[in-house]
Amino acid sequence: MPIPQIAASAARPLIVCTRAVARGPAGGERHRLSGASPGEWQDPRNAARDRRCALAQTGSRRTRLVEVRHRTLSRRQVSDRQTLARALADALLDGEWLAVPMSARAASVLGGRPRWLRRLLGKMRSEFPQPPLGGRDELARALEQAGLRNRTDDGDPISPRRFNTAPPRMGPRRWPVPELATAKDLADFLGIEAAVMERLADWKGLGRFAADEPLRNYRYRWFPKSGGGSRLLEVPKSRLRMLQRRVLHGILDLIPAHELAHGFSPGRNLLGFVKPHCGRELLLRLDLESFFSSVTSARVFGIFRSAGYPEGVARLLTAICTHRTPEHVLKAAPDEMARTSEERWRVLKRLAAPHLPQGAPTSPALANLAAYGMDVRLASAASSIGAVYTRYADDLAFSFDSHGARRASRFHILAAGIALDEGFSVQFRKTRFVRQGAAQRLAGLVINEHPNVPRREFDRLKAMLHRAAKHGPAAMSGLRQPNVRAQLVGRIGWVEQANPARGRKLRALFERIA
Predict the structure, then answer these.
(1) Residues 159, 290: Cα–Cα separation, whole Å
(2) pTM as predicted
(3) How far apart are CA 27 and CA 437, in angstroms?
(4) Residues 175-234: pLDDT tens digits?
(5) With b meaning 16 or more CB within 10 Å and e meaning fewer, what string describes 5-25?
(6) Cα–Cα distance measured from residue 86 to residue 136, given in angstroms and rounded to the nearest whole number
């Protein structure tokens, strides 16, 4: 458009300002250079500033990069940091975790050794003395955070020269677990087809949106707790439960829990939990909140990775053993499920994320393994003041002698801090200090001198057996029909475990029942 004529009598000439643009080849697209004045894009003295300005304007576009040198780079030459980080992470993990081999593998991906490569690898080896258990994804995130560059000093993108195509293989095995390198190996180990295994694993979490009960892999029930509140039981259906039991007996039983964890561990029982605290001056009891749902899928994935399984197999095993509660189940939570609104929010938040379902056969063993670090730290803290520590599922027990009892007043705060740092939280309203002068109860047993069943429980069970022997099993109250005999056998066995002499008396009464 022609500029209109300006009157000669004007006090000063009119200056027409336009925004400069960087022009590509003839007929090409025009790209603005913010902040430039007319004609500056042609000034060689401003070339460096123009180049920086162009990169700032278009650097985030993966498919087009225009520079002031009138050249458009092709799509295949453009690389983003995430793709480069993954390719570099694959190369670093494909061999020895040593400086020289790692540098050579990185150079083969980058097409050379940039000046920043040595510093970047030094950071990785300092942060990860051993290859990370999280595999490629964890190492790729660390590379991006450590300052991985995807452009040269001239602004050209750095594209990966090669990608790792090595087949997955087992890592170092710390325990005698079976070798399962691929998803097919895992399906053969579980005795099921690979497609059916992936559907039951539901690693994408699509089962949460299933409208019909037959399409879901779990059944849900809110169950009232004896001390008030409610807990959610998430029971897997038969086919998924079968897979979980094979994972439990074929893999998890081969990974030992901490020696002080006595719950859900083969060869350990309730007496091993309570006996170390018998006859002590002071007993401290702590209770963990939402023990199973506090263990996230990321921690379960780390357990299988530490066992040596590659990422693909570890992710499938994690999906088989964890679950995310559907929204309609969370909305149906009873109002009395928690004492406070804050506690209710915490419980529902844990259930909404992938977690260990309470009701799955694998959850107790995985929860014990996830709490291994907490057990180590709590045992060390207790021994530092002469205390004794044991754990049975979510029950933590500490006992002190007369010397350590003086310093135990604030020990529960230290223990709660360690548990919180390890991903668990303590219910302070259930914290109890019990001295030798009172009845020291732990896991339903009195342990002042030796493990024993409370007198009131023994007398009640003895009266039930006497009534059943005289009037028949139908005359008993307080037991659910029709498995009355099985319930009696279980209660008698519990008494025999703690006090064999009293157990023999109850067993004799039980034999008289018709």
Answers:
(1) 47
(2) 0.73
(3) 95
(4) 999 999 999 999 999 999 999 999 999 888 777 777 777 788 999 999 888 777 788 999
(5) eeeeeeeeeeeeeeebebeee
(6) 7
